[in-house]
Amino acid sequence: MCAGNELWFAMVYMLHFNEGPAGKLKQKIIIKRFFLNLFIVISYGRYAGHYSIGLWRIILYAVTPIMVLKQIISLIHLYTAALDMAAIDEAERANKAKKN
Q1: Residue-by-residue DSSP string for 20-81
Q2: At 100, is the secondary structure helix, strand, or coil?
Q3: Which residue in 11, 40, 14 sits closest to 27, CA to CA?
Q4: 62 CB-near residues (< 8 Å, 6+ apart)
Q5: What pLDDT score was predicted for residue 19?
Q6: Which residues are CB-neighbours of 64 under 8 A, at least 6 positions away?
């Protein structure tokens, strides 16, 4: 999960510069060549190259659910850590009050 989260941020960084490796293929041969060559572009429309998605964007879309889930888990951890720190602080203040 952590690797998927980091991969998402790496792909956002890579997309800042370009779409990634790409090739123009007709729709009929895209499915056949997709598994043989990962450095292709998914093309839509009547003609190859009419609309395409680069490899970095494909990876970004694939790992987005992992990133969202990881961020939700991180927020839950932040909330529980804040509650734990408040409880520790309260216990330390109670101990100081008893000593004085």
Answers
A1: -S-----HHHHHHHHTT-SS--EEESSSTTSEEE-HHHHHHHHHHHHHHHHHHHHHHHHHHH
A2: coil
A3: 40
A4: none
A5: 81
A6: 8
Query: What's the pLDDT score for residue 34?
Result: 53
Residue 27 has pLDDT above 50, yes or no: no
Question: Average pLDDT over the chain, rounded to whole?
Answer: 80
Strand pairing report for 51-53 and 42-44: antiparallel
pLDDT tens digits for 42-85? 554 444 545 567 888 889 999 999 999 999 999 999 999 999 99
Supply the pLDDT for residue 20: 79
- Separation between Cα atoms, residue 12 and residue 61, nearest integer Å: 10
Q: Give the integer Cα–Cα distance in Å for 36 and 72.
A: 36
Question: Is residue 23 within 8 Å of residue 40, measured between CB atoms?
Answer: yes
Amino acid at 46: R
